[in-house]
UniProtKB/TrEMBL annotation:
It comes from the Bacteria. This is Transposase. Residues 9-86 form the Transposase IS66 central domain. Residues 93-130 form the Transposase IS66 C-terminal domain. It comes from Oligosphaera ethanolica.
Amino acid sequence: MKAAGNWVELVEQFFALCDDIVRRRLPPTSMLVRAAVYALKQRQELSVFLIDPRVNIDNNPAENAIRPWALGRKNWLFVGNERGGEKSAIIASLVATCKDNKVDFKAWLEDVLTRLGTTRHDDIDSLLPHNWTPARN
């Protein structure tokens, strides 16, 4: 297969290859056929990064964000209870989202906590780390 000049071409070549694999007379239980069928069923989802620049081609940032939590998994046995674990997971998610968006978590949290009570429900998305603009004093 010739190297693609851009992502769109490469993705099209990948799905053409999947189509070719499915059309061959291989057993439907073959792992290769099953993988190709799965990829074709997920074509729209697997192609989102081509039209939305905010979507990464892979999930490496997500994997890297959860690595410290996975490494410390045994430590989480001591969060107290299931509810404490859920709250810890929410905070970890907010910290990782701020980090991914180059937002100072402490500054964001202080600002958002002061604005939550006065922000309209329709505008709550503006307080998410990727949309956040600090309030002016």
